[in-house]
Amino acid sequence: QVQLVESGGGLVQAGGSLRLSCAASGRTFSNYNMGWFRQAPGREREFVAGISRSGRNTDYVDSVKGRFTISRDNAKNAVYLQMRSLKQEDTAVYYCAASRETLFGDSVYYLNTNYRYWGQGTQVTVSS
């Protein structure tokens, strides 16, 4: 079992920055591929960024490429999402997610169904 707790959300003006953090507990953190998803009102939850177990592989949804950076610190059991040049359309609840535990491969996962554990979410609101 893995527990995930997000923090760092808030209200920011367009063009500003926020850094989301996700603290994990319960198992060997480096055995999990991690991801960030978001859900805006009236919309489905969407993949934002993913990072492999080692941290060597990352990927992003096209709308955030060049603005968001995902990283992880396996020694601290944490994953981060640095968000820059924020836009109003980035407003959403952001969720941290962990895959099923794996000892093989080092991949980025893109689908909701690839992730087994979810945090409670943190609200990000970007104002004009």
- Radius of gyration, in Å, reads 14 Å
Q: What string, H for helix and E for strand, traces the elements in order? A: EEEEEEEEEEE
Structural class: mainly beta
Give the overall shape. Answer: globular
Description:
The protein is mainly β. About 0% of the residues lie in helices and about 50% in strands. It contains no helices and eleven strands. Strands 2, 4, 5, 6, 9, 10 and 11 form a seven-stranded mixed sheet that branches. The protein has a four-stranded antiparallel sheet with strand order 1-3-8-7, with no helix packed on it. The protein is globular, with a radius of gyration of 14 Å. The chain starts with a strand and ends with a strand. The model has no long low-confidence stretch (mean pLDDT about 95).
How is the secondary structure organized here?
Layout: E1 3-7, E2 10-13, E3 18-25, E4 34-39, E5 46-51, E6 58-60, E7 68-73, E8 78-83, E9 92-99, E10 115-118, E11 122-127
Parallel strand pairs: 2-11
Antiparallel strand pairs: 1-3, 3-8, 4-5, 4-9, 5-6, 7-8, 9-10, 9-11
Please tag this protein with its features.
mainly beta; globular; 128 residues
Task: Briefly characterize the structure.
This protein is mainly beta. It has strands spanning 3-7, 10-13, 18-25, 34-39, 46-51, 58-60, 68-73, 78-83, 92-99, 115-118, 122-127.
